[in-house]
Specification:
The chain is an alpha/beta fold and about 325 residues long. It is built from 10 helices and 8 strands. Strand 7 and strand 8 form a beta hairpin.
Length: about 325
């Protein structure tokens, strides 16, 4: 009796927030073999083929020395998998598109993306005050995630991240109390930068990292900075996935949109970036992790925190609340 062959579209029963895989691949070819999407690596005279379970994958980052076939892209698109081309170690992220290269993804094409949340989003997006309200709601969700995850027993016990709860709560409370005083996005961005700097200092002290200065150029030799860049791009992959699933264009940002057309991906990634990537970057640096080990820390953190669910709920709740 022959086994039934399922098409990728039939396998899309796993919703994106419950998918387990986010791949970073390098020095390989992605192709279709025997009806399955696989990546092949060369070892000596032998080629090794590895299956990619596309129905259970959110995004694929193709790093140095990679290629992908047209047939593989077709199957990935059918299964709703986002594909991004990036440099070594996951950064920088770029693709053959004129949209902002640091956050753009090649999204699956479909004429039947949902419109419900897009309609709610654009109903308030052209109003500066309402767009600011949406940005503030995003920041409140971000604060809740930081408080929940940084003070979780698993992070403090298993990963040696012994922060002082009083210090963290003081930083978060000060930030939240000043949110309503922000008159525009510039005020909010400045306030956000102040909070993030305080979080870096708290994390550095917790793991006894020593001297640390956040590099924004992506070319730092400091291992914590490299891990932060790497983990942030993983978060951008989830943010881009959330945008695609909810049917929102990347340009409809509520905070980062003035200088980057892909700003909404930044906004959504910020919901979980500081909560998960930031502590794990310093923990991994002190533990002597390599890039793959750090990446696994981040992916495990995303799964434990239901990161995509957080993003979806934030978009839904914000759109509904601000569009009223």
């Amino acid at each position: 009796m022959c086994a039934k062959v399922f098409s990728p579209s039939e396998l899309k029963t796993i919703i994106h927030s419950k998918r387990a895989n986010l791949y970073y691949l390098q020095h390989c070819r992605v192709l279709v073999k025997g009806g399955r999407v696989e990546y092949v690596t060369d070892e000596g005279k032998q080629s090794l083929y590895w299956n990619i379970p596309i129905a259970n994958t959110t995004a694929i980052m193709l790093g140095t020395g990679t290629s992908v076939t047209q047939s593989a892209m077709r199957e990935l698109a059918k299964a709703g998998v986002l594909v991004g081309f990036c440099g070594g170690g996951g950064t920088p992220l770029f693709s053959a598109s004129e949209v902002e290269p640091s956050v753009n993804w090649l999204t699956p094409q479909s004429e039947y993306r949902p419109t419900e949340y897009l309609q709610l989003w654009v109903s308030f997006w052209f109003d500066d005050s309402k767009r600011l309200d949406a940005a503030i709601l995003f920041q409140r969700i971000r604060l809740k995630q930081i408080h929940k995850i940084w003070l979780s027993p698993s992070l403090q016990r298993e990963n040696q991240f012994p922060i002082e709860p009083d210090s963290l709560e003081r930083i978060l409370a000060a930030f939240e109390n000043k949110l309503e005083q922000c008159k525009n996005s510039t005020d909010l961005l400045l306030l956000e930068a102040t909070m993030t700097k305080a979080l870096y200092k708290l994390a550095v002290n917790a793991v006894k990292y020593g001297e640390f200065t956040r590099s924004s150029r992506g070319d730092s030799t400091d291992i914590a900075n490299q891990f932060l860049d790497h983990g942030n791009y993983l978060a951008y992959g989830l943010g881009a996935t959330a945008c695609w699933v909810m049917g929102l264009p990347h340009g409809l940002a509520v905070l980062h949109g003035k200088t980057r057309r892909g700003g909404l991906v930044f906004d959504i990634a910020d919901l979980i970036k500081d909560a998960i990537v930031l502590p794990n970057a310093f923990i991994a640096a002190m533990a002597g992790d390599d890039e793959q080990e750090f990446r696994q820390r981040c992916l495990s953190g995303f799964r434990k925190a239901d990161a995509l669910d957080v993003m979806f709920d934030a978009i839904k709740d914000t759109a509904s609340a601000v569009a009223k």
